[in-house]
Amino acid sequence: MKHTLTETFYLNDGWFQENVVYVITWGRRTSAPRARVVREAVTFIGEGRTIPTEEESAFMTEMLSMKNKYNEEHGRVGNLTPYVRFANRYSCERFTPAFAETAYAAVVHSLSSSSSPAPAATPAAASSR
């Protein structure tokens, strides 16, 4: 679960986890530029493996490889155990109404194909934009 009042949020571990369902709420600006800021509440529900683009995934695969290599090669320095982590910012621009519908449908399908009963599909949850 991620929440922000703006149109960007931070990934605590730096990237989307493949087998995690993300519920992201944010405030989409609906007012004109230079006008008093008015935002509407928006919710996105999607699986981590379907959120990033191929380009983003390729870039982060390289970055995570460098991070893991650094963390494996560098041990303690006295009492300090340094560890590199990421806290990347991600824009909600990707979560268009069409993408949100597709991502939510994939979550419902994934849950319905597992052994647990599927939740009732609620279009409001996926399309409250």
Structure commentary:
It is a single chain. The chain has one domain. It is 32% helix and 22% strand. It has three helices and five strands. It is globular, with a radius of gyration of 18 Å. The two termini are 17 Å apart.
The arrangement of helices and strands along the chain is EEEEHEHH
| Unreliable residue stretches | 125-129
What number is the mean pLDDT? 85
Side-by-side strand order of the widest sheet: 1-3-4
Structural class: alpha+beta
Major pleated sheet? 3 strands, mixed
Number of helices: 3
Using only C-alpha atoms, the radius of gyration works out to 18 Å
Helix fraction by DSSP (H/I, runs of at least 4): 25-40%
Beta percentage is 15-25%
Shape: globular
Number of strands: 5
How far is the N terminus from the C terminus? 17 Å
Q: How many domains make up the coordinates? A: 1
